[in-house]
Amino acid sequence: MRSRNLNRSAALTLALLAPVAAHAAEKPQIAVEERTLANGMRWLLYEQHDSPTVAAFWTARVGSVNERPGITGLSHFFEHMMFKGTRTIGTRDIEADLRLIDEQEKVRDAMRAEMEVMRERLRRGEIDDLQKPENWTERYRELDRQFDALVQKQRETIVKDQLDQIYTANGGEALNAFTNEDQTAFFVRVPRNKLELWAWLESDRLLFPVFREFYSERDVVFEERRLSAESTPLGKYDEEFNALFWEASPYKWPVVGWASDIPTYTLAQAKQYFATYYAPNNLTGVLAGDFRTAEVMPLLDRYFGRIPRGTVEPPPVVTLEPKQLGEKRYGAEAETSPTVRVWWKTVPAVHKDTPPLDLLSDVLSGRTGRLYKGLVLGRQVANAAEASIDPHKYAGIFVAEVTVKDGREPAAAEAALYEEIGKLQKEEVPAEELQKVKNAYKANAYRRLSSPFYVGFQLVHYDAMGDWRLINTSAERAEAVTAADLRRVAEEYLTKENRTVATFVRKEGGPAEDPEIGKLPPPAQAMARQALTQVAAEKDPARLQQMVAQLQQMAGQAPPEMKPAIDLVLKRAGERLEALSGAKK
């Protein structure tokens, strides 16, 4: 696989297949058994015997929130490094492999010393960019040539993507990983008779990792960062807005890291990070599917139990976000439709106010939600308007985003948004309206339990948030919410002094939004908007064709309301492919 992180195409595919509300379930729950090995590694086990496969996950409770300035993005970088192999996997000659890594480190030590000389030149204004080869000293150029020669020699010992090859040859599928603010998770689906192979492979990369291609992978991640910030109209502005929103919290920097930090990671830093955060006492494993707990526990103990407990406990996150005292505002011109984005600081995922905040966002969202009725149909100041929550382990965000209708001013859309929020602060939501969103919430909770793969994703997510039991209790917590709770959280959190507002206006000469988006159902508009932006920005026909193939494969499984969006994206992707082919001729 080209990239191990959940890229935008993969995320889009998951979004298309995300469950939608059906009939309400009274009490959606599953039987999960929790076990802990002697070394501290927690296991969450869910038996489901409909298919002879097992969705297998393990997650390290480390994300960008655990970083510090200077090593931002290191958690995401580690996601990449964990696919580089072990003393057994990924090499033809481990002794030569390790010797070349040591030789590369000696050259890198000399390069770091020379980099300090270049940083001093940068501070004095003698050069403008450390990444430009023309700004390098002669000594640094020579060391760079020596390093490249060692890299070429090491490539002769490396077996690329051997882990993926082994899984594929044994019926494994969907091998991948993701990193976010609070965790780094790895997963694959395997036949039930290959669980022992999985246990050996995964415990081996925790017990005997070899960080091959360390410095070349830094370059890969740096390019990934550049693409994530620059290949979408709002990418670079999103980072700035996020950094403005958070005052002190380590949620302030992007998960992929700051551009200046990525090229400075050292192998010594990586080994220390691994020893701290990838020790079994900071890991949770999840199995969901066709296995027997009594039979699988000795297997887990045999393989994962041999990993020694960490000698240092991961340090706690102690820097918390202070109370915001005044409204913050951000404005930018971008190649996008005029947009108003408002974020309010809220609470961690496990907080008692998360369920009412979640239901409050549901009251505002969707075709029957108050924002669509009030801003799109009523005042006609917007093409789309949605609200959501983004709860993390240590803090949360309440999000409202409005796509302004052509010919209307962003200020009018923003005022209309606050008008709808004001109603929620002054009057309780009627019982019928509240029950409707509760029913939809419970129905979605039920549908999310229908697949072991979805169950696995939820268990690692809730575990990272601080309580895996939320998979069973979230619907009950939502059902207990009252109309008075909704009004209370609206009054407490959605205040002027607690908000940060971004206004994006179309850059002069920038492209207008595709008029077909406005004809789609509201739940499909955001997905189509994101996907069409990605299509327009893509310059590589092969990557675009891969995206088309994914969409075509998943079209038959997507919810009905998403199919018009898929058709529109496929149509525009075909047009884009023709344009790229014509340009190459």
In short:
With 585 residues, the protein is an alpha+beta fold. 48% of the residues lie in helices and 14% in strands.
List the helices and strands and how they pair.
Elements (H helix, E strand, L loop, with lengths): L7 H10 L15 E4 L5 E6 L5 E8 L13 H8 L12 H30 L14 H18 L6 H8 L3 E7 L4 E8 L3 H13 L6 H17 L4 H11 L21 H11 L5 E7 L3 H11 L24 E7 L4 E7 L8 H11 L5 H9 L3 E10 L4 E9 L5 H17 L4 H17 L4 H14 L4 H10 L3 H11 L5 E8 L15 H16 L3 H14 L8 H22 L1
Parallel strand pairs: 2-6, 7-11
Antiparallel strand pairs: 1-2, 3-5, 3-6, 4-5, 8-10, 8-11, 9-10
Textual characterization of the structure:
The protein is α+β, with helices and mostly antiparallel strands and 585 residues long. The protein is built from 20 helices and 11 strands. Strands 1-2-6-3-5-4 form a 6-stranded mixed β-sheet, sandwiched between helices. It has a 5-stranded mixed β-sheet with strand order 7-11-8-10-9, sandwiched between helices.
List key phrases describing it:
585 residues, alpha+beta, six-stranded mixed β-sheet, five-stranded mixed β-sheet, 48% helix, disordered N terminus
Structural class: alpha+beta
Which strand-content bin applies to the residues? Answer: 5-15%
**Rough outline:** globular
| Average pLDDT level | 90
Q: What is the spatial order of strands in the main beta sheet?
A: 1-2-6-3-5-4
Distance between the termini: 29 Å
Largest sheet: 6 strands, mixed
